[in-house]
Amino acid sequence: MQKQTLAAFIVSAALSHPAASAFAAEAQTGDFGTLADGTRIEAVELTNRHGVSARIITLGATLQSLRVPDAHGASADVVLGYDEPQQYLDQPQYFGASVGRYANRIAHGRFTLDGKDFELPVNDGPNHLHGGPRGFDKAVWTLAKAESGSPARAVFTYVSPDGEQGYPGRLEVTAIYTLSEDNELAIEYRAVTDAPTIVNVTNHSYFNLAGATGDQSILDHLLTLFADRFTPVDATLIPTGERRAVAGTPFDFREAKRIGSDIRDGASEQLRFGRGYDHNFIVNGEAGELRPAARLVDPGSGRVMELLVTAPGVQFYSGNFLDGTTVGKGGRIYRQGDALCLEPQVFPDAPNHADFPSARLDPGDTYVNRMVLRFSTAE
After folding, report:
1. 20 to 30 Å CA-CA from 96: which of 120, 157, 178, 316?
2. What is the Cα–Cα distance from 373 to 286, expressed in whole angstroms?
3. HSE value, Cβ hemisphere, 13 Å, CA-based, for 108
């Protein structure tokens, strides 16, 4: 494989707007190296005038880098990932990836749709996880558009054929990344199908607002979750079907709380099952409407990230399965608690729970999952 480091990242303008004004964010395209089989991976970098930048690569429509200034104006990359494209396949951790066709878990890799049983490959103990061993994160998407403006935009497409990883229907998927001058990075997934199917596509970025190449964990980050209830799981992390109130439990983040405050609570069976937090929280408000889901603060850097979602739930994962065997960007060894994920989604295993929000998509309908990451600094 030809080695191409980030230092050799050569960009060329791919703008549909004739000129980027001082008040327009900018989009630039370039190469991100090649896979072992010679497949070229492209990248788009979106940058605004406040120093926020996002690099997205065609492998997995993945958010590879997200640079955000701190309270003193110093910029740092706040998401985990790799420097080389082949690493995303050799040590898959879903860093920044667009995961699907069904994000999260489906019990025993089975579901029934219109009276027909479907079997999916299992790749997480007895369960199917994030679309299977060859999910959307491992596909090379097509870069359909990169344009500067207010906001700057990058559009990626992927066609999942009927039967891929066991799913019915030919699914046309679009991932749209936009960066505004208001320091908002929006990610929107859309999909259409030619036959009834199930869809749950989300972004799986691992965040550390102190800087993903530093030595600080996320245990001192302050997290607020706008969720009064969560869905408890069994020992294999499949929801039991219960909607449990967070009040009086380690899962109560309705007011800002250190992530590390209760994470080692040995009395909590739920925390033991997940080795920490790896649970779906039911976002307050009406699903389908963009509304607050989470607020994350790093007291050291002053960076603040607010998450707004249209999805019914958000999976809070505290990086429990990072075990020190993964070497990421800049040679950094990733350990448990080095980052967290906040994944807007339909509930895990929803196709097997009639009273959960539906993951069904029919021909003629459009699946939409929109999330907005809003960055600022603490006063």
Report:
1. 120
2. 19
3. 6
